[in-house]
Design a protein that fits this description.
The chain has 299 residues and is mainly β. The chain has two helices and 25 strands. The protein has two domains: 116 residues, 7 Propeller (Methylamine Dehydrogenase, Chain H); 145 residues, 7 Propeller (Methylamine Dehydrogenase, Chain H), CATH 2.130.10.10. The strands form six sheets. Strands 15, 16, 17, 18, 23 and 24 form a six-stranded antiparallel sheet that branches. Strands 11-12-13-14-25 form a five-stranded antiparallel sheet, with no helix packed on it.
Length: 299
């Protein structure tokens, strides 16, 4: 967390629908809530006024709603409501960003897209799938959906990936088959995330809740801890470590959750410290954590 006075706010556009950093954080891609993609360089500079807008990509016809930079290659992927996805690479000889791949005629608008950790695959979400995240081994994919469920799928391709790595599961089914399914949210699942080691999974529900799945030895049933809170729902979540995660939503203030020495998760604090009485103090006691329960697994 940034110390007081360290964080700065820069307005690059009137609105930003999505953004992505490259691997070393020297470049930033944003969509200014339109069909355009703006790419900035020199982003190591702490003063955003020193950043240079090196490119404006306008090939999409409708709103760009997903951006992700490959963690391995210097390639950017974008998806849009126009039902297409582009993979971009900077051509130094022409000093231009050019599309390498175009995916057309998706049956519905793409709303999010992500590279796998090894940079070998990319996956886009459409329609009822609200969010996705790759397992660190690049062979498992978790999704959230408007059918109230969080699911883990096999993403292992025999001819490409070599020996299967089932991660916390006993075995991997064929590509695209479900490995586990969780319905604890009892609401739309807005956001999903794997922990850095891939031994924990979190998903946030539209009913103002977050659920943390603990995996044991391969083949063992995982346990889930549910936290429900009296604030607006979280729309994106991310593990900061195996024992801490952050979520953001419509309250305009990131929420931190942490695990204590007894493996018990709880709300920790809001990131933005308001000058007046904090929302946490005003709503003291509004957080409750459910008991751990067994999950429904398909393995």
């Amino acid at each position: 967390m940034a110390a007081k006075g360290d964080a700065r706010l820069w307005q690059l556009a009137d609105g930003i629908s999505c953004h992505a950093w490259n691997k070393d954080r020297s470049k930033l891609a944003i969509c200014p809530n339109s069909n355009e993609i703006w790419i900035y360089s020199g982003c190591h500079q702490p003063d955003a006024t020193q950043w240079r807008k090196e490119a404006v990509l306008t090939e999409h016809d409708m709103l760009v709603c997903g951006l992700d930079w490959s963690p391995v290659h210097d390639q950017l992927v974008s998806c849009s409501h126009d039902r297409s996805a582009f993979v971009w690479k900077y051509e130094a000889a022409f000093r231009q960003w050019k599309p390498l791949l175009v995916v057309l005629r998706i049956t519905r608008a793409a709303i999010n897209v992500k590279w796998s950790p090894d940079g070998a695959y990319l996956m886009a979400t459409i329609c009822r799938v609200t969010d996705l995240d790759w397992h660190p081994n690049s062979q498992l994919l978790v999704t959230g959906s408007t059918d109230l469920k969080c699911r883990v799928f096999s993403a292992h391709v025999n001819d490409v990936d070599g020996p299967p790595d089932a991660g916390p599961f006993e075995a991997l089914p064929p590509f695209g088959e479900p490995v586990a399914e969780f319905d604890n949210a009892s609401a739309w699942v807005n956001a999903v995330a794997w922990s850095p080691k891939g031994d924990r999974l979190a998903f946030a529900g539209q009913g103002s809740s977050i659920h943390i799945v603990h995996f044991g030895a391969p083949g063992e049933y995982p346990t889930i801890q549910s936290i429900r809170f009296a604030y607006l729902p979280l729309m994106r979540i991310m593990f900061l470590s195996s024992t801490a995660l952050v979520g953001v939503g419509y309250d305009f203030n990131p929420m931190l959750f942490a695990e204590d020495g007894n493996n018990f998760w709880a709300f920790s604090e809001f990131v933005d410290k308001k000058p007046t009485e904090s929302a946490v103090k005003r709503n003291s006691g509004s957080f409750s954590a459910g008991a751990c329960t067994h999950a429904s697994c398909c393995c």
